[in-house]
Amino acid sequence: MSTYTEDNRKVTTRRLQEMKLRGEKISMLTAYDFSMASLIDQAGMDVILVGDSASNVMVGNNTTLPITLDEMIFMARSVVNATKRALVVVDMPFGTVAGNPLNSLENAIRMMKETGADALKIEGGEEIIGDIRKIVGAGIPVMGHLGLMPQSINKYGTYNVRAKDSAESDKLKRDVKLLESVGCFGLVLEKIPTQLAKEVTETTTMPTIGIGGGKYTDGQVLVMQDMLGINNNFSPKFLRRYADLHKVIIDAVQHYIKDVKENDFPNEQESY
Ligand code: KIV
Hints:
Blueprint: H1 13-22, E1 26-30, H2 34-42, E2 47-50, H3 54-57, H4 69-82, E3 87-91, H5 101-115, E4 119-123, H6 129-137, E5 142-147, H7 153-156, H8 166-181, E6 186-190, H9 194-203, E7 208-211, E8 219-222, H10 224-227, H11 245-261
Parallel strand pairs: 1-2, 1-8, 2-3, 3-4, 4-5, 5-6, 6-7, 7-8
Helix pairs in contact: 2-4, 4-5, 5-6
The chain binds 3-methyl-2-oxobutanoic acid.
């Protein structure tokens, strides 16, 4: 275990709140399968997000829109099976929380029942606040997601930094208040100016988790494939790479191919 996680109790939404209050930063990383989730949990991550970025990094789609509820359920269940300590949060995919509270609640209940996840993450503010109120009211913890919302890429047209002008930053601040008022336990702030993320973090009771939101949020999240350098063709300014697994994996696989071709593998010790 890392030195930051001597406390091996299961992370809860309440503990994230306590971490915000005492100024302890919250670590969050995505995972989509049993093996990687198990490693990330053993390393001491606070929150594992089964993000709908799975649509890009696991399925190879260009956007997060095509991934389905069934596909997210499959991945989330494998992450839950691997995780002992981290809080597991699952993204509700595009179209499953879309302005029809009863329908959204049904989808949210399915996600919780069939995966065993601890909480859900939902992109959006005012437009779907009735849906989120209904889901939280049913006892399901919800993390909001504002700023750049990849599920709305067809509306924005780009993945550029959001809320740079006052109209959009005022709307974001109103949405933060709404999400807080319906009982969201946390909030992802994606790709917004550092000063805006700082102001939101200082004025909301919800722990904020940034991705491209600067250093003042209560925690940080990255996509696992990006931070481990499995993906080496995605280099936004906010990304820090902690490994070059692209090279490690290509080298290892090429070594294996060579050994097979040269009849070096298996040797005597590796045979029955
Ligand atoms: O889907 C995802 O991985 C996310 C993070 C980038 C916050 O929403």
